[in-house]
C-alpha cells in the first residue's frame, strides 16, 4: 500500500502524500508546513510551475478558505524545498 493520496492545488494531479510539499497558513501568509503541524493544509508538487499555476488559479484562498498571501519569503523557501527534493531523489 502506498499510503494516502493528496491533490496538488496547482496542477490538480493526485499523488502519494510523501511526493508533495505540505503548506500551512501563518498569520494570513502561506508557509511551508512544519513537521507534525496540525490544521488545514494544502499540497503542491515539488515543481515551481505548480506554484505559479496555483497563484494564477487563486487556489490558496480556496484551499485555506480565506485570504492567503504569497510573499517572497515563501517563494524562496518553496524553491529551496524543490531543489532539496530533487537532490535527494
Structural summary, described in words:
This protein is an alpha+beta fold and 89 residues long. The chain has one domain: Hypothetical Cytosolic Protein, Chain: A (2-Layer Sandwich). It is built from three helices and five strands, in the order βββββααα. The chain has helices spanning 48-57, 59-64, 72-88; strands spanning 5-7, 14-16, 20-26, 29-32, 42-45. A three-stranded antiparallel sheet has the order 4-3-5. Strands 1-2 form a two-stranded antiparallel ribbon. Strand 1 (5-7) and strand 2 (14-16) form a beta hairpin. The longest helix has 17 residues, at 72-88. The radius of gyration is 12 Å and the shape is globular. The model has no long low-confidence stretch (mean pLDDT 93).
CATH topology, what is it called? Hypothetical Cytosolic Protein, Chain: A
Q: Class in CATH?
A: Alpha Beta
Percentage of residues assigned to helices:
25-40%
CATH architecture classification name:
2-Layer Sandwich
Amino acid at each position: 500500500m502506498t499510503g494516502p493520496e493528496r491533490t496538488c492545488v496547482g496542477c490538480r494531479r493526485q499523488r502519494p502524500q510523501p511526493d508533495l510539499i505540505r503548506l500551512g497558513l501563518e498569520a494570513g501568509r502561506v508557509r511551508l508546513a512544519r513537521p507534525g503541524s496540525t490544521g488545514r493544509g494544502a499540497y503542491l508538487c515539488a515543481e515551481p510551475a505548480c506554484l505559479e499555476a496555483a497563484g494564477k488559479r487563486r487556489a490558496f484562498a480556496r484551499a485555506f478558505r480565506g485570504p492567503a498571501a504569497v510573499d517572497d519569503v515563501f517563494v524562496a523557501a518553496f524553491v529551496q524545498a524543490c531543489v532539496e527534493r530533487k537532490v535527494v531523489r
